[in-house]
Amino acid sequence: MAQQIHWRAGGISLGLFCIVHKLSGRNSELSTISTYKDFVLSNELGEINSQVILPQTIEQTMEKLPNGVRRLAAQLRTPIDFQSIWSVLTDYDQLSNHIPNLASSSLISREGNLVHLRQVGSQKFLGFNFSAEVHLELLEDLPEGLLQFHLLKGDFRRFEGSWMLSSLPNGIGTCLLYQLVVQGCIGMPVALIEKRLRQDLKANLEAVELAASKLQSFK
Predict the structure, then answer these.
(1) Domain that includes residue 191, residue range
(2) Which of 28, 90, 92, 113 is the most buried (most CB within 10 A)?
(3) CA–CA distance, 100 with 52 (Å, rounded to integer)
(4) Torsion of CA 96, 97, 99, 102, to 10 degrees
């Protein structure tokens, strides 16, 4: 039977709903995906021109930074429309029904487009069940297709990210970019979970796409 551990020294719930702030343009930042537009134009010009968007087309990258910091990014091109994806991502109280390893998600407060969230993630790793809790402040920017957060308190030293959405030309679908910068507390074995991080990026994007496809089918 798996043991349950709440990692207060540095949470290992990497399936949390991760929405990170937009990365700056400094040379030390993630250069392989400098901006959302650059990623789309450099990787998908051929698909856009041919008017073909294949589902589950996911590209991702990871960068190792000092002090156990990891910067990750993943992009999904999907035929699902912008509004369906946005609706799934902003239905905060229901996110745990869609996002893998997200045990709970609740909207604490809202003032206009500024919201506070409490989320608890849980996953099995090396035979143990790890969980972590975060309290986030999140800014919604619908015109820019951006959901942006920073950590207020929780089981990480650093936990910030973004979901960035953009409609593709001629209404052929949506491009979704997911970025995460994470740093666990002292004692968190980051090197042991890098594979898990990559898997969770892909799983989160696929889960959002699946939920959005169901929503779109009812329109």
Answers:
(1) 3-22+32-217
(2) 92
(3) 28
(4) 30
Q: How would you class 117 by CB atoms within 10 Å of its CB: exposed for 0-12, middle for 13-18, buried for 19 or more?
A: buried
Residue 153 placed within a domain: yes
- Conformation bin of residue 10: beta by default, left when phi > 0, alpha when psi is -120 to 50: left
In-domain check, residue 99: yes
Grouping H, G, I as helix, E, B as strand and the rest as coil, residue 10 is coil
Say what the pLDDT of residue 57 is.
62
Residue 156 and residue 17: Cα distance in Å, rounded?
14
- If one counts the domains in the chain, the total is 1
Decide if 148 contacts 18 (C-beta within 8 A).
no
Q: Which residue has the tokens 């986030």?
A: 136
Q: Is the dihedral of CA 186, 191, 192, 195 positive or negative?
A: positive
Mean pLDDT per 10-residue interval, the chain, length 219 residues: 36 33 33 39 42 61 85 91 96 92 93 96 71 92 96 90 94 92 75 68 89 86
CA dist., res. 8 & res. 187, Å (int): 10
Q: What is the CATH number of the domain that holds 175?
A: 3.30.530.20
Both tokens of 91, joined, read 């239905």
Q: Tell me if 27 is assigned to some domain.
A: no
61 occurs within a structural domain: yes
